[in-house]
Write a structure and sequence with these properties.
- It contains two helices and five strands.
- The two termini are 21 Å apart.
- By secondary structure, the protein is of the alpha/beta class.
- The chain has one domain.
- Helix content is 17%, strand content 20%.
């Protein structure tokens, strides 16, 4: 799926969790949500991302999973998310996430799947 095809779903006000696999999310993915503060769980697997702009607005996010998605992006906004407790990532993404989460108290779990 593409970002354009997902827009109706991303604008649902009751959306609290979202898991996407094999999606092209290049563009303004994190800015495409209507009620990002209500989202508590986000999982992206094999998704293409080009930016993390807007990630800092996901104040209710408690769990984030990034598997083979966004390996080369700047995830420094994660350290400022007040509810974030756990980030799961594959080894290739973990390096960037480890630096972004340093000193934040957020648990980084490295997984293959």
């Amino acid at each position: 799926m593409t970002l354009q095809e997902l827009r109706p779903i991303l604008r649902m006000s009751a959306l609290s969790g979202l898991a996407l696999t094999d999606c092209d999310l290049r563009g303004r993915f994190f800015r495409s949500f209507d009620r990002e503060g209500a989202l508590v769980s986000l999982s992206l697997t094999d998704c293409k991302l080009s930016s993390t702009r807007g990630l800092d607005e996901f104040e209710g996010l408690t769990t984030l999973t990034l598997l083979r998605s966004g390996e080369a992006l700047d995830f420094s906004a994660l350290s400022g998310l007040p509810a974030l407790r756990t980030v799961r990532a594959d080894p290739d993404t973990a390096g960037a996430l480890r630096a972004a989460l340093a000193g934040s108290g957020v648990s980084l779990e490295i997984t293959e799947e």
